[in-house]
Design goal:
Helix content: 25-40%
Order of helices and strands: HEHEHEHEEEHEEHEHEHEH
Radius of gyration: 17 Å
Distance between the termini: 22 Å
Strand order of the largest sheet: 1-2-3-4-7-9-10-11
Shape: globular
Number of helices: 9
Number of strands: 11
Strand content: 15-25%
Largest sheet: 8 strands, parallel, barrel
Oligomer: single chain
Length: 268
């Protein structure tokens, strides 16, 4: 699976930056007064700012659809597909999709928009803010193949945010098991919640057990810790720290994004 990862990004230690969409129709925080035009305009502005900063890839996510669901409202996922489709001619880098926290919707949106990769919680059993969490990787991967998207890379978030794993094995042990049983294209290691950094020691343990599978830091990457992070990880997914004031819910800050990528380029 490492070859698929390297072929897609064509660089070492890729930076995948988040385009966080405003709350979508079907979710409690959706602003019907601003409507779809606002969602599209906001996403386009962030996309262009990130590409101007020369990030290696982007990922579209519905981070604002709080409280999150395991079976996402079709209005939300269809709007997400509409937005990505409307922006597709302006996307100049590889792009992915994450529909929180619904693997089937994530794959459906990715397939319908021509995305290159997806991120999700595909495996494990968790007690979470949303209740009992028990995803089905086999069902998700079979669904992907049924849509003739065997080329769609699957990034497995192995440490669910907003949740506690009921599996008593370590994150590293679970990662090794998942690589054997599911053949993911990358393993993602997260902090406890969005924006919380991953312990470097945790990344090292995971990477030591699965040296031939890309391992990415999934949360809490900042300009202050990216050098240490990339000394271990094969790449990063970043959202909050590229926003105005480092706030997840704000727009992308072009200067923050540019400074971050300049730092990464100096490391690479």
């Amino acid at each position: 699976m490492k070859n698929n990862f390297e072929k897609l990004f064509k660089t070492t230690k890729p930076v995948i930056a988040m385009v966080h969409l405003p709350a979508l129709p079907g979710s409690p925080l959706y602003n019907y007064k601003l409507g779809l035009d606002y969602i599209l305009e906001t996403a386009e502005k962030d996309l262009l700012a990130l590409q101007e900063a020369e990030v290696d890839a982007v990922m579209f996510g519905n981070e604002n659809d709080r409280p999150y669901e395991f079976n996402v409202n079709p209005a939300s996922s269809s709007t997400m597909a509409y937005v990505i489709g409307a922006l597709r001619n302006k996307i100049k880098v590889p792009y992915g999709v994450n529909v929180l926290w619904d693997p089937m919707s994530t794959i459906a949106v990715a397939a319908s928009t021509g995305a290159h990769f997806v991120r999700e919680i595909f495996t494990g059993t968790y007690a979470s803010d949303m209740g009992y969490w028990n995803p089905d990787a086999g069902k998700a991967m079979r669904y992907r193949n049924s849509l003739s998207r065997e080329d769609l890379l699957m990034f497995y978030n192995i440490s669910a945010e907003f949740a506690y794993s009921l599996d008593k094995r370590s994150v590293a042990e679970r990662s090794k098991s998942v690589v054997f049983s599911s053949v993911p294209d990358a393993i993602l290691v997260s902090g406890q919640i969005t924006g919380e950094s991953v312990a470097i020691s945790e990344l090292k343990k995971v990477k030591n057990l699965i040296p031939n599978t890309p391992v990415l830091a999934n949360t809490g990457v900042k300009i202050e810790n990216v050098e240490d992070t990339l000394s271990v990880a094969d790449g990063v997914i970043i959202g909050s720290s590229l926003k105005e004031d480092g706030n997840t819910w704000n727009a992308v800050d072009p200067k923050r994004a540019s400074d971050f990528m300049n730092k990464v380029k100096s490391i690479r």
